[in-house]
Design goal:
With 205 residues, the chain is α/β, with parallel strands linked by helices. Helix content is 21%, strand content 18%. It has a single domain, classed as Isochorismatase-like (Rossmann fold, 3-Layer(aba) Sandwich). It contains 4 helices and 6 strands. It has a 6-stranded parallel β-sheet, sandwiched between helices. The radius of gyration is 16 Å and the shape is globular. The structure holds zinc ion (ZN).
């Protein structure tokens, strides 16, 4: 099924909110241009799930200070989303569902982990298990950044047999090279992901 205008999420759907964290906002340690502009679209999507009692799941980058992805430790990124810092917190305008299904990734110093698929909750249980446990078949996804964590999460979900709908107005790219975000979307589509705007969620019913 292709979502058309007036999409209604249903049983078997989950919304995955990827890394909407302060360090990925403009002015943050690893700021994504326009990162804060996704918040209304993200919140609209979250509300659309909450009003139907459907699961909303949050991932976060949650690095130890000696994480291997940081420039000081031989990686390619400035230090970002260090555990328990303000930069690792969610944007203050982001709607947080309670109880909060929260999955952390990049928690082991030696391991880069762009994909949220194996991110772990506070008990160490991975997102992949939660999706299976909840009987999820289709995942709506938005967040930061299109060309890294969203891309890799989407590819893992598709690989695992989930249907994936990317909320393209709820994503922004790092664009280390100018076309990276666009190329990432093309890769997702080529593998079977479907694009949709959060404006196409039916508000109720
Ligand atoms: Zn990171």
């Amino acid at each position: 099924m292709n979502p058309t205008a007036q999409t209604t999420p249903t049983e078997g759907d989950a919304l995955l909110v990827v890394d909407v964290q302060n360090d990925f906002m403009p002015g943050g340690a690893l700021g994504v241009k326009g990162g804060d502009r996704i918040i209304p679209a993200m919140n609209r999507s979250i509300e659309s799930f909450l009003v139907r009692n459907l699961p909303v799941i949050y991932s976060r980058d949650w690095h130890p200070p000696d994480h291997s992805s940081f420039l000081d430790n031989g990686g390619i990124w400035p230090a970002h989303c260090v555990q328990h810092t303000e930069g690792a917190g969610f944007h203050s305008d982001l709607l947080i569902a309670t109880p909060t299904r929260l999955f952390s990734k990049g928690t082991r110093a030696a391991e880069e982990q762009y994909s949220a698929f194996h991110a772990e909750d506070e008990t160490g249980s991975p997102l992949s298990s939660t999706l299976a446990h909840l009987g999820i078949e289709r995942v709506y996804i938005g967040g930061l950044a299109t060309d890294y964590c969203v891309l890799n999460t989407v590819l893992d979900l598709l690989q695992a047999g989930y249907r994936v709908i990317v909320l393209n107005d709820a994503c922004r790219a790092v664009d280390v090279s100018p076309n990276d975000g666009h190329a990432a979307l093309e890769r997702m589509i080529a593998r079977g992901a479907v694009m949709m705007s959060s404006l196409d969620f039916r508000s109720r019913g």
